[in-house]
Amino acid sequence: MLKTYCLLALGFTLCTASTAKAQxxxxxxVLGLSAGNIIYQKNNGYRQISAQLAPSIGTFVxxxxxxxxxxxxxxxxxxxxxxxxxxxxxxxxxxxxWVRYYLPSSSKHRVFGELSVGGxxxxxxxxxxxxxxxxxxxxxxxxxxxxxxxxxxxNVGLEALAKFATNSGNSTAFGKGYLDINLGFRVxxxxxxxxxxxxx
Length: 200
Prior knowledge:
By secondary structure, the protein is mainly beta. The protein has one helix and nine strands.
């Protein structure tokens, strides 16, 4: 009888471990949304506001390795008012392929690294001393970071990503070279059905 219980316990453990990794197994698709580069600064005659949203889609090409594309949308506005008033607004739309590697684990807590390189179309408008200047440009975007994901349900993970990001242009909508923390969530759609809740 004891032997039977031991075999059942072993089988349950192996089953749980294998299904717990279903979120990051080959063939799983991911949909996500994150926010970052959120800045509000006001000091005397200077004010800066910026934010970025990045919807993304991807798939696991191997266990724990995912490839995908993000579409970051960035906006920034700076205003100075000293001897004259100067206002600058930037809007950027990017196309950012990414690769992500998750450290193998059967827990709800997952650690990963991410690299992304792509480009963005930026549009800026500057008003200064009664004059208006418009400009558009294509810039290179790149980032490298490490993150943490916590699965609140079998198919939904909340995540935080700390990364160093840079762009080759003059726009401040995506930063010029900065350390940022992105917060967001991802929906994991395992191949063949829903995943099982991972162990703590």
